[in-house]
C-alpha cells in the first residue's frame, strides 16, 4: 500500500500544576526519552530552518518524555542538506567544512550547501511539524535508539532539555529544535533557537585524541561550529536578552585548600515577556592540571524569601523554574548556594583565580549589566582581591575578610586569592595598593607604589 504522510505538531499544551512546573523533573525526563510505537515511512522531506532532511525509507517513532511527545527518531536511509545563505560567513563555512572533511558546494548565488547521508536521526523539537509515518511495521527500534543515545549521550553542548523546556513553558509557538544526525562515518548536529539567540547553528560532532586519561571525556563528542546564521534578525542589530542580571551580591568562604562555599543573591529583571523558566551559564566544574574535574555543586536555589526552587544543572547550563511567571521589567531576587573543590592552584602555587568564566550564575553578555557587592573570607594568611572598589579589609577569627562594591554596572566579575601581603600608600588623595606574592622586600614594595602613582 502507498505510504501516506501525516504530521505531528509539537506545540505542547502546558499544565502549570506542580509536577509540570518542576523543571528538574521535566529536564530528567527530556534527557532520558523513550520511544513510542514505530511506523514505516517512505520518502519524506523534513524542513527545519535551513536544514532539510530527506527520510528515504525506514522506520520512525515518536520520542517521549514521560507521556509527552517531544520529537521523532528515524532509522533507515536518508540524506541531509544544510544551506548557508549569509555572505558574511561564506568563506568561513567553506574553510571549516573542508577542514572537517564535510562536502561543501558553493552555488551561483553564493549559497554554501553542506550535504551527506545518514542512517539515524533524532529530532527533538517544539513548534515544528514532524512526520509520524503511516505503515504498520514489526520493526523494533530499541537497538537503534540505544545506539543513538550511546553515540550522542555525551555531546558537550547545552542540554537539549534546557532549550525545549523554555520553549514549552514560556513560548510554545516559537520554533526550536535540536537534531542529532548519525551515520557510520561521521556525526552532525543542528540547533534552531528562535527563542534566545535567534539563530541556527550547524555543527560537526567529533571526538578528540589524547583524552583517554580523562574518564568524563572518553567517547565525548565535541561540537565544532561550521555555520551560524541569524534567524529573524540581522547580525548588526543588538540582540535583546530574555532577562538582565542587574545586581550581584555574593559571599565566598574558603580555607587554604581547594574547597569553597559561595552564597549568591542575584537581582534579575525579565525583559519583553513574562517568564517562568530562567537559564544561566554556570560551570559544572574546573579541570585541574592532572585532568580531573573539580565539581561545582549547586546545593540550593531559592527565592528572596528562602522558598526552594527546582533547578537542573549540567554541561555548564543551569535551568531554574519559578513558581509563577515573573512579570516583564519587574525585578526579582534569586539566591544560589554553591560548593565544591573548584579553587584550582596552578602547579600547586599559593594562589587561585576565578576569572571571566561563569563561576556564578549569569546570562550571556548581552544580559549582564550588574552592580556588585562581595565579601570574601579566606583562612589566614590568605587574602583576596575582587572586582570593584575596596570597602574594607578586616579580620574575623582565623579569616581575613575582604569587602568590596561597585555601584556602576559592569561585566566580568572576578575574584583572586593567595598568600599575599597588602601594602597601601596614599599620594595626594590617590590610594595605591601593592600586593607582593613572594621574593620582594619592603623597599621594593614602596618603590612599586611610587612608580604606580607616577604612571597614573
Overall pLDDT metric: 90
Could you tell me the radius of gyration in angstroms? 26 Å
- The general outline is elongated
Main sheet?
12 strands, antiparallel
Q: How many discrete structural domains?
A: 3
Head-to-tail CA distance between termini: 84 Å
Helices and strands in order, then pairings?
Elements: E1 7-9, H1 18-21, H2 23-31, E2 34-35, E3 39-41, E4 44-48, E5 51-65, E6 68-84, H3 90-99, E7 103-106, E8 112-126, E9 129-131, E10 135-136, H4 142-152, H5 160-170, E11 176-182, E12 187-193, E13 199-206, E14 222-230, E15 243-254, E16 260-270, E17 275-281, E18 285-287, E19 293-303, E20 311-314, E21 317-326, E22 332-340, E23 351-354, E24 368-379, E25 383-386, E26 389-396, E27 399-410, E28 415-418, E29 423-427, E30 430-434, H6 442-455
Parallel strand pairs: 15-24
Antiparallel strand pairs: 1-9, 2-5, 3-5, 3-10, 4-5, 5-6, 6-8, 7-8, 8-11, 11-12, 12-13, 13-14, 15-16, 16-22, 17-21, 18-19, 19-22, 20-21, 23-28, 24-27, 25-28, 26-27, 29-30
Helix pairs in contact: 2-5
Amino acid at each position: 500500500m502507498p505510504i501516506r504522510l501525516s504530521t505531528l505538531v509539537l506545540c505542547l499544551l502546558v499544565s502549570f500544576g506542580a509536577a509540570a512546573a518542576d523543571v528538574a523533573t521535566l529536564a530528567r525526563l527530556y534527557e532520558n526519552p523513550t520511544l513510542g510505537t514505530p511506523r514505516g515511512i517512505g520518502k519524506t522531506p523534513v524542513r527545519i530552518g535551513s536544514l532539510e532532511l530527506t527520510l528515504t525509507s525506514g522506520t520512525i517513532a515518536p520520542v517521549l518524555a514521560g507521556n509527552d511527545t517531544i520529537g521523532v527518531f528515524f532509522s533507515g536511509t536518508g540524506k541531509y542538506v544544510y544551506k548557508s545563505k549569509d555572505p558574511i560567513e561564506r568563506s568561513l563555512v567553506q574553510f571549516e567544512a573542508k577542514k572537517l572533511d564535510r562536502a561543501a558546494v558553493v552555488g551561483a548565488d553564493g549559497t554554501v550547501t553542506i550535504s551527506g547521508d545518514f542512517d539515524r536521526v533524532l529530532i527533538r523539537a517544539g513548534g515544528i511539524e514532524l512526520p509520524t509515518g503511516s505503515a504498520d511495521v514489526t520493526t523494533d527500534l530499541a537497538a537503534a535508539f540505544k545506539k543513538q543515545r550511546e553515540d550522542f549521550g555525551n555531546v558537550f553542548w547545552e542540554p537539549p532539555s534546557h532549550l525545549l523546556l523554555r520553549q514549552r513553558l514560556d513560548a510554545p509557538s516559537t520554533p526550536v529544535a535540536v537534531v542529532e544526525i548519525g551515520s557510520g562515518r561521521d556525526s552532525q548536529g543542528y540547533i534552531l533557537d528562535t527563542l534566545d539567540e535567534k539563530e541556527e547553528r550547524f555543527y560537526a560532532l567529533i571526538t578528540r585524541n589524547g583524552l583517554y586519561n580523562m574518564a568524563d571525556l572518553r567517547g565525548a563528542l565535541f561540537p565544532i561550529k561550521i555555520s551560524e546564521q541569524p534567524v529573524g534578525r540581522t547580525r548588526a542589530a543588538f540582540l535583546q536578552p530574555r532577562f538582565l542580571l542587574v545586581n550581584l551580591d555574593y559571599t565566598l568562604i574558603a580555607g587554604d585548600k581547594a574547597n569553597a562555599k559561595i552564597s549568591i543573591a542575584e537581582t534579575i529583571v525579565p525583559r519583553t515577556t513574562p517568564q517562568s523558566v530562567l537559564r544561566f551559564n554556570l560551570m559544572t566544574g574546573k579541570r585541574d592540571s592532572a585532568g580531573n574535574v573539580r565539581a561545582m555543586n549547586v546545593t540550593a536555589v531559592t527565592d528572596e524569601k528562602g522558598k526552594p526552587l527546582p533547578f537542573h544543572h549540567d554541561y555548564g547550563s543551569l535551568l531554574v523554574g519559578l513558581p509563577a511567571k515573573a512579570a516583564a521589567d519587574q525585578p526579582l531576587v534569586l539566591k544560589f548556594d554553591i560548593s565544591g573543590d573548584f579553587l584550582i592552584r596552578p602547579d600547586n602555587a599559593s594562589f587561585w583565580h576565578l576569572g571571566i568564566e561563569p563561576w556564578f550564575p549569569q546570562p550571556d553578555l548581552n544580559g549582564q549589566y550588574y552592580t556588585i557587592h562581595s565579601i570574601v573570607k579566606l583562612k589566614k594568611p590568605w587574602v583576596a582581591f575582587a572586582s570593584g572598589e575596596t570597602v574594607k579589609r578586616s579580620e574575623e577569627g582565623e579569616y581575613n575578610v575582604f569587602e568590596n562594591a561597585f555601584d556602576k554596572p559592569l561585566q566580568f566579575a572576578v575574584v583572586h586569592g593567595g598568600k599575599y601581603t597588602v601594602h597601601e600608600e596614599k599620594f595626594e588623595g590617590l590610594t595605591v595598593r601593592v600586593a607582593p606574592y613572594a621574593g620582594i622586600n619592603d623597599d621594593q614594595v614602596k618603590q612599586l607604589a611610587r612608580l604606580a602613582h607616577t604612571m597614573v
